[in-house]
Design a protein that fits this description.
The protein is of the alpha/beta class. The chain is built from 14 helices and 15 strands. The strands form 4 sheets. An 8-stranded parallel β-barrel has the order 6-9-10-11-12-13-14-15, surrounded by 5 helices. A 3-stranded antiparallel sheet has the order 2-1-3, with no helix packed on it.
């Protein structure tokens, strides 16, 4: 009997044989070879599976005579040939943790691929360094996935291996929908699930989701529980703020901690403040203190007004956070997480070349469902700080196609006697 390939080639399986009974005893646990697993399937052919198992690891131990076994499948991922159980990747991350924020209509599948590519560097031994420690998707409506156009919304959940570990972020006020969305994330091979409890957008708040959840801690706790049910072994985290109309971290954070998410990202502003004031990093520090006072194991990440890795490191020292989430600093700078390169050292030629690559990826992956106009906020960020930037930027903002963008860039470079390689 051959084990058929799963829907995602990177999904692997872990087989656990358990003796049935009131208090099951673990017989063996390991990553079986295909032959071992085929033998197990012959004994219990109705078992579900995800894909081909990893080979060359521990064998599945055989049960003793007359013992019926239950085989449980636990998905895992392989990073560069290294098998890693997906139960909680957070525990394996070195601290401090530096992660990429989910930004609506910014960190889409195209831009995430560009960041994953240019945010890393290759060490002399061939291994990779740099890059975000964790990448989030844009937030996706769990309600829409359940009762809307799942096919279109699922395009926001497309990712590549280079982005791992990658988290799917959802928003909703309906626990049943959160559970189903989390289950979808599990099926798609994500490394974790995150719940948005901080978005101030009025259209999201009308759905009693996003920042509005800060007014309903009971529902927030129910949503975390629902996500855990759907996500199975995947870790569940939360992104939120320090309060709604006022700072409420003393009441709000303990409520979230009681639900035991693996991590909480705290944006240092209230919903009312939006981005009109500086982020309150003293309140983020207080969030760490509250976590410690409660003896919680939940990781605390800070977010707000951090534009570079150097600034992130300073915030870690000042506040004691486990890590920092960086958002707007990524605009026009996919090299942000590459500690071997500085944005000021990137040539104009390379910036524009990467901008073209980004544009082409956007059209390839999302051009049929998203407006080309969304790319223009990136052009503002890529094209600045050099002579003639304003002139080129104005032209780019009027362009309506990738072909026009490519023509304008090449004409500008020719005019300024700079050559560019074909992307």
């Amino acid at each position: 009997m051959r084990l058929p390939a799963g829907r995602n080639s990177v999904r692997k399986i872990k087989v656990r044989a358990v003796i049935p009974g009131d208090c099951p005893e673990l017989i063996s646990e390991g990553f079986p070879t295909e032959n071992d697993f085929n033998k197990a399937l012959q004994a219990q052919p109705e078992i579900e599976h995800y894909g081909l198992p990893c080979c060359g690891a521990d064998k599945l131990g055989a049960p003793t005579a007359n013992q019926r076994v239950r085989l449980e499948l636990v998905p895992v991922n392989c990073y560069g040939g290294r098998v890693q159980l997906m139960s909680n990747f957070w525990e394996k991350l070195p601290k401090p943790i530096f992660v990429l924020a989910p930004l609506a209509n910014v960190t889409d599948s195209a831009f995430r691929r560009v960041i994953a590519k240019y945010g890393k560097f290759t060490r002399p031994d061939g291994s990779k360094g740099g890059g975000p420690d964790v990448i989030w998707t844009e937030f996706v409506s769990a309600d829409g996935l359940v009762k809307g156009n799942r096919e279109v919304l699922s395009r926001d959940l497309v990712f590549t291996e280079s982005e791992r570990p990658v988290i799917a972020q959802f928003f909703t006020s309906t626990p049943e929908h959160m559970e189903e969305a989390a289950r979808l994330a599990l099926e798609l091979g994500f490394d974790g699930v995150d719940i948005n409890m901080g978005c101030p957008d009025k259209s999201i708040e009308k759905q009693k989701a996003g920042a509005m959840l800060m007014k309903n801690p009971k529902l927030a706790i129910e949503l975390i529980a629902a996500a855990k049910r759907g996500a199975g072994h995947l870790p569940v985290s939360v992104k939120t703020r320090i309060g709604y109309n006022k700072i409420e971290i003393e009441e709000w954070l303990p409520a979230l901690l009681s639900a035991e998410p693996v991590a909480i990202t705290v944006h240092g502003r209230t919903r009312k403040e939006m981005s009109k004031v500086d982020a309150h990093w003293d309140m983020i520090k207080r969030a760490v203190e509250i976590r410690n006072e409660q003896g919680s194991k939940t990781l605390i990440l800070g977010n707000g007004d951090v534009k570079t890795i150097e600034e992130a490191k300073e915030r870690v020292v000042e506040s004691g956070v486990d890590g920092v989430m960086i958002g707007r600093g990524i605009f026009g700078n996919p090299w942000l997480f590459n500690t071997e390169r500085k944005i000021e050292d990137i040539s104009i030629e390379e910036k524009l070349s990467v901008m073209l690559e980004h544009t082409k990826l956007f059209m390839e992956l999302l051009g049929d469902i998203k407006s080309f106009a969304l790319m223009k906020k990136h052009y503002k960020a890529y094209v600045h700080g050099f002579d003639g930037a304003k002139e080129l930027r104005v032209q780019l903002m009027e362009a309506e196609s990738v072909e026009e963008i490519e023509r304008l860039v090449k004409e500008w470079l020719d005019k300024n006697r700079v050559s560019i390689a074909t992307v």
